[in-house]
Amino acid sequence: MHTGEQYHAFMLGSQRDRAVRERFQKLALGLMPAGAGLLDFGAGTGIDAKAYAASGHPTFVYEPSEPMRACLARYCRDEIARETVVTLTSPLACKVQAVTADFAVLNHIEDHAALFEELSHVVQAGGFVLASMLNPYYLGDARYDWWRANLVNLVRHGHYAIPSESRIHRFSPGFMARAAAPYFHLERRTPRGWGTVTELYMFLLFRRD
């Protein structure tokens, strides 16, 4: 998947990913007061943004990838024209009730302490950051050498990076909670129980202190 259009088509065509996205959107919308604004951080092609705007939430979008932004501009054309979706060149250019980061956006960022400090200037008091992140405990990844080789790093340090072009990282919830402090605290983590090892994604809810 090299273009925004290819990514967009894949995400809309994947039943598994649609189900994960629906759960994430339902959780985010259930936490939002009526009419409250939000920032879709790493908005991709605008799939979530369109849903948030349709639910009556003014939605700001920040997406650093040009191919993704181009696809978003087409997919959310009507919402952008009505200004129910507003594109930003900096995530700091808004003040909102919530920030959402879906489908492993935060797994591509190494310095979360700096990120949460920035987001503390964006999220209103009592608001939240909701992130969908790759689950470092997912046993489906145990077939890969990199997963087994990094178990010690996960236990000792709470994070590791996979040697690849994207340098995608895995983070434990505890590591993320420490990075979020003192601006946010980890209020909720899903899944629990068996889902901790059987679900590819985990949802982390951070509340603004």
What does this structure look like?
With 209 residues, this protein is an alpha/beta fold. The protein has one domain: Rossmann fold (3-Layer(aba) Sandwich). The chain has ten helices and nine strands. It has helices at 4-13, 15-31, 47-54, 66-75, 77-82, 112-119, 145-149, 151-157, 173-180, 195-198, and strands at residues 38-41, 59-62, 85-88, 96-101, 123-134, 159-161, 169-171, 184-190, 201-208. The strands form two sheets. It has a seven-stranded mixed beta sheet with strand order 3-2-1-4-5-9-8, with helices on both faces. GO terms for molecular function: methyltransferase activity. It comes from Dyella solisilvae.
* Rg, alpha carbons: 17 Å
Instruction: Give the total of beta strands.
Output: 9
How many DSSP helices? 10
Principal-axes shape call = globular
Strand % is 15-25%
Count of individual domains: 1
Q: For the record, give the distance between the C-alpha atoms at the N and C termini, rounded to a whole number.
A: 39 Å
